[in-house]
Amino acid sequence: MRALLIPLALTGFCQAAQAGDISSAYTDLDWKKDCVTYAQAAEGDGDWASLVCSGYRGYPVLVGYDDARESVYYGFPSDDMTAVWESFTAFNGSGPKVEWRIETNGDTAIPFAAIHRRSVSNPEDEKKSIEVLVVAKVAQPEEHQGCTIGLVLATGNAQANDLARKLADEKAKTFTCGKDKREVIGDVPPFGRVDN
Hints:
Layout: H1 2-17, E1 21-28, H2 31-34, E2 35-40, E3 48-53, E4 61-66, E5 69-74, E6 85-88, E7 92-105, E8 108-121, E9 129-137, E10 147-153, H3 160-171, E11 183-185, E12 191-194
Parallel strand pairs: 10-11
Antiparallel strand pairs: 1-7, 2-3, 3-4, 4-5, 6-12, 7-8, 8-9, 9-10
């Protein structure tokens, strides 16, 4: 009898340790329809704005705009609404769709990563832009830790979406923002982080 119980107990333990199902969901990001501006430059005080936008099931998206560059934060920021500024040094803009990587356990679905296409100006040819997939850790309500964990060159790379999903699924949940080094796949334009 004991010999029968041990395999059953191990089976139950292994099932409990397994991760939930991972899938994707998509949301729109349209500044005019999906966002509210909560801070902006006064007339003559530069060209910047801070917006909060709807994301996946109550998870917000914060967009910081400054001089034709964008920093995007996915999830819940700290109470003072400040997020780290992360952006390309060249002019850039975010795409109209956000892919959320979601882990589902029973009735609970939690977005743990976001994949978002960015169009970055090409300093060598202003008429052509470089497409990059930004892979980000989604900040949870109790942790407020969100940041870019990887960059995947999308221009000329038919596997970019698959590579970004693999990176998100393998690294986002355990990535420590401000400490771990982001992964770069391909020759992407310079990207930086400024802690507020």
